From TrEMBL:
Signal peptide: none
Protein's recorded name: non-specific serine/threonine protein kinase
Single GO term (MF): ATP binding
One Pfam family, short name: PK_Tyr_Ser-Thr
First-listed, main subcellular location of the protein, grouped into a coarse class: membrane
């Protein structure tokens, strides 16, 4: 978290294989690595001005001093995490007046503060307000308000007590116990419902940055999507895709999108498949600390996933015994479908939701609900595939890295 309190520099625009890959370094005890951002030549335009977006949003406009007071002057010990945008602080506000409250009173909020040196941050900040100011769903994080004052750009969210899925899957701290199979299925279902809503006719939005760190968890592990800085309106009329700068997170972004900049809802489905695979395996999408053949999760796991005998070599050893072999195969099969190289062979998110509902119900109907323990009917695997803890990886020679934070915000076109 150290970088929250010192200047953090983003290196911009390193040309690479015809695209610009950007890195945002991170440092600190628990988070280190880089983000990579890729851009091509098409710059999206927005039909709405900043004033229109802010006025129409129904969000509270907070004075900077109010958020300073709510977070006790952005106290270091109230940092919840750090992303490419900046640090996120815990704070308290009165639920009626929305003014700063004493810690432990009123409602808890998460305040995301944009690094002032961030070049792309303003557009991400505005895109977040644009989308979360209009979209409401139980599986999307609630944006309460924002602050725009001098150079200050902040976002105020509902506080998500269990933090991000990324922390639960990959963090070393002892208070992050491995998520059980049941909770993984619950989180997968909730996140899938959030994406299905975004893709539905009610919203028609492509999320574009689906990854474990953007899935936040409430006190009962309900999943909510956060970070709409890269979200994009879906294609309209007879168009099959939207053309965009290629942005997102290496390791999660769909290959055809990386190659062409053509964005469809199926790009999100691919990213969902990557996260599902992370949940099944307990491995990061990209892990440079592993042997070279295992660094790219999808490439490494693909041959195992399609083999009934070998699938269990992919499964996270920390949850062995918690699921039936048939459920593991179904979940792996769903991941394979989402990760199809051809977008048209990927299911849509409604279909993914249905498949996950069955998996979730199947496991809950056999009396094992909430169990983290052993079940005699469940599969055990002998090979070791323990937790992995590592740095986030950097982009190198155009190869995917584990993380690329939000990039230039595509506003409504
Ligand atoms: N509403 C929230 N409630 C609780 N914790 C939060 C909330 N929003 C963010 N966090 C914490 O702060 C961390 C950083 O979030 P942030 O979205 O800034 O970065 P990120 O998702 O890790 O990376 P990126 O910059 O790519 O989005 C999250 O991983 C999470 O642990
Ligand atoms: Mg995020």
């Amino acid at each position: 978290m150290g970088s929250c309190f010192s200047a953090r520099v983003k290196a911009e625009s390193l040309p690479c294989n015809g695209v610009n890959i950007k890195h945002a370094g991170r440092s600190g005890n628990d988070r280190s690595g880089s983000s990579s951002k890729v851009s091509s030549s098409t710059v999206p335009s927005t039909p709405r001005t900043q004033g229109e977006i802010l006025q129409s949003s129904n969000l509270k406009s907070f004075p900077f001093n109010e958020l300073k007071a709510a977070t006790r002057n952005f106290r270091p010990d109230s940092v919840l995490g750090e992303g490419g945008f900046g640090c996120v602080f815990k704070g308290w506000i009165d639920e009626h007046s929305l003014t700063a409250a004493r810690p432990g009173t009123g409602i808890v909020i998460a305040v995301k503060r944009l690094n002032q040196e961030s070049l792309q941050g303003h557009q991400e900040w505005l895109a977040e307000i644009n989308y979360l100011g209009q979209l409401y769903h139980p599986n999307l994080v609630k944006l309460i308000g924002y602050c725009l004052e001098d150079d200050h750009r902040l976002l105020v969210y509902e506080f998500m007590p269990k933090g991000s899925l990324e922390n639960h899957l990959f963090r070393r701290a002892s208070y992050f116990q491995p998520l059980s199979w049941n909770l993984r299925m619950k989180v997968a279902l909730g996140a899938a419902e959030g994406l299905a809503y975004l893709h539905s006719d009610k919203a028609k939005v492509i999320y574009r940055d689906f990854k474990a760190s953007n899935i936040l968890l409430d006190s009962s592990y309900g999943a909510k999507l956060s970070d709409f800085g890269l979200a994009k309106d879906g294609p309209t009329g007879s168009k099959s895709h939207v053309s965009t700068r290629v942005m997102g997170t290496h390791g999660y972004a769909a290959p055809e999108y990386m190659a062409t900049g053509h964005l469809t809802a199926k790009s999100d489905v691919y990213s969902f498949g990557v996260v599902l695979l992370e949940m099944l395996s307990g491995r990061r999408a990209i892990d440079k600390n592993r042997p070279s053949k295992e660094q790219h999760l999808v490439e490494w796991a693909r041959p195992y996933l399609s083999s009934k005998r070998r699938i269990f070599q992919v499964m996270d050893a920390r949850i062995q015994g918690q699921y039936s072999s048939s459920d593991a195969l179904k979940a792996a099969n769903l991941a394979i479908q989402c990760l199809s190289a051809e977008p048209r062979y990927r299911p849509n998110m409604e279909e993914v939701v249905k498949a996950l509902e069955q998996l979730h119900n199947s496991n809950n109907n056999d009396g094992s609900r909430g169990s983290r323990g052993e079940n005699p009917r469940r599969v055990h695997r002998s090979s070791s595939n323990g937790p992995t803890y590592h740095r986030k990886n950097e982009v190198s020679n155009g190869k995917p890295a584990s993380y690329a934070g939000p990039c230039v915000s595509p506003l409504r076109t």
